[in-house]
Design a protein that fits this description.
mainly alpha, single chain, 26 helices, Arc Repressor Mutant, subunit A, globular
């Protein structure tokens, strides 16, 4: 059983699950062993984000006590897993209930480590339901607890720091958010974690990376996240990366490549119907944002309006307010571009009022300068409240983020022949230049893309839309 648990922490899903199956077969009839098996099985499921049937993970104290009789720590652990399952399916009321009950049990057994995990689950549930002030207090408490018990450089503090980065990102404090996100990423690449913390860190990292360092840097971040998802068998994280890539390419004006990747990833959101379990709100939010931005990039503003409005209504209906506000902001941009009648002042003020009241300036920044005309239509009080974001957006409008490497005409021509498999000699004869001149152009191309070989140049050029597949 311990071997299965350690293999799970190493990311070896198949071996961990096979060892667990052997334990289940061998451990029948032993009450303590069956109890411990249930707890270890739950931990394996949270490591590999396996919440297909969340009914098996308890969210109520009495249910957990029935499973983990005489084991308060096991009881609290089961509730923590139940909270993570509820978070996965957008059942935030159950996530809150389970995490707070689990925290009380963790305090009884003096597990500050377990208490920190409970605080993180509770904080995320509060944030997604619009309780940003309470969520920030919980994260601050989790950071203090991690500092006091494990030191300032602990892996636990780095995990909590991923959620701190997320809050700073939402507030529009992107420089501070980047520092926390970088520290978190350095840790989670080498330690265990679960989907919520990995997704929080990755989204903040690539979004800020785009505006600070350009398209290539953001794509590298997403490539690293995709590899991490594959290594840890996190299928939801893999899907999020696919959606984020479409979103990123659309923001950078690479609409054709974004459309190809959207089709390949099957991003289409066909229904907002909620099952008995709930729905994968992370995937729905990422898909909707990506598809709407792609449609905006292709000029289909009317279609881009319908999608986020429907998503926002569905999220608001079940109390997932933060995703709803995010989609409504993008819907306002689409409505402005589509010029479908006059803006409804109350609608603009309601959305920007929610953003201003909860200090969610980062939700405006992530949309980019296209939100500026909408802000100008809002109430003067709201314009004043979001003025810091407005100033930043105007700066980006004047000096856009670097989208891709800039090549001369000759470098572009050399790149195209290189991609077609031509040698330096053939390229030289084609342009009636020396091979040394070809090598000079290749050196310039390599430096601009930050690579050192021909295969990497072709791969990155395709990735950035500099070459057609």
């Amino acid at each position: 059983m311990m071997h299965a648990y350690l293999q799970a922490k190493l990311g070896n899903e198949e071996l961990a699950m096979e060892l667990l199956r052997l334990v289940e077969v061998a451990g029948k009839g032993g009450a303590r062993l069956e109890r411990d098996f249930t707890v270890i099985e739950a931990l394996l499921h949270i490591y590999f984000d396996q919440f297909v049937n969340i009914a098996r993970w308890p969210v109520a104290r009495t249910t957990a006590e029935d499973i983990a009789i005489g084991d308060p720590l096991g009881h609290a652990t089961l509730l923590c897993v139940g909270a993570a399952g509820a978070l996965a399916w957008g059942r935030m009321e159950y996530a809150t209930q389970a995490s707070r009950t689990a925290r009380a049990q963790m305090q009884l057994v003096a597990s500050s480590l377990g208490e920190d995990y409970c605080l993180m689950h509770d904080a995320l549930a509060c944030a997604i339901t619009g309780q940003l002030s309470r969520s920030r207090k919980l994260i601050d408490e989790a950071l203090r607890l991690a500092d006091a018990n494990f030191g300032t450089d602990s892996a636990l503090k780095a995990l909590v720091g991923c959620f701190e980065a997320q809050h700073l990102y939402w507030q529009g404090l992107w420089t501070e958010a980047e520092t926390w996100s970088n520290e978190g990423h350095e840790s989670i690449e080498h330690t265990d974690g679960w989907l919520d913390v990995l997704a929080a860190a990755a989204e903040v990292w690539w979004q800020i990376g785009l505006w600070k360092n350009g398209l290539r840097h953001a794509l590298t971040i997403l490539d690293n996240t995709a590899q991490l998802a594959r290594d840890r068998h996190l299928h939801r994280l893999s899907h999020l990366v696919q959606a984020w890539r479409v979103d990123l390419l659309s923001q950078c004006g690479l609409a054709s490549q974004a459309q190809q990747e959207a089709r390949a990833a099957d991003l289409e959101v066909t229904s907002w119907a909620r099952s008995e379990q709930g729905f994968d709100w992370r995937g729905r939010e990422a898909d909707t944002l990506a598809l709407a931005r792609m449609q905006l990039a292709t000029g289909a503003s009317s279609a881009a309006l319908t999608r986020p409005e429907a998503g926002a209504d569905a999220f608001q209906l079940v109390g997932l307010l933060l995703p709803a506000w995010r989609l409504r902001i993008l819907a306002l941009v689409a409505k402005h571009r589509a010029k479908e009648g006059e803006f409804v002042q109350d609608e603009v003020d309601a959305v920007l009022g929610a953003v201003a009241q909860r200090v969610l300036l980062g939700l405006l920044l992530e949309v980019g300068p296209s939100i500026l005309p909408v802000i100008q239509k809002s109430d003067a009080l709201f314009r004043s409240t979001v003025s810091i974001a407005t100033t930043q957006l105007r700066g980006w409008q004047a000096h856009p983020a670097r989208r891709r490497a800039q090549f001369s005409v000759k470098e572009t021509q050399v790149l195209q022949l290189l991609a077609s498999g031509q040698s330096n000699n053939v390229i030289a004869r084609g342009f009636d230049i020396s091979e040394n001149t070809v090598k000079f152009h290749l050196k310039q191309i390599f430096q601009k893309l930050g690579v050192d070989n021909r295969a990497a140049v072709i791969g990155l050029a395709l990735q950035q839309g500099l070459l057609s597949p």
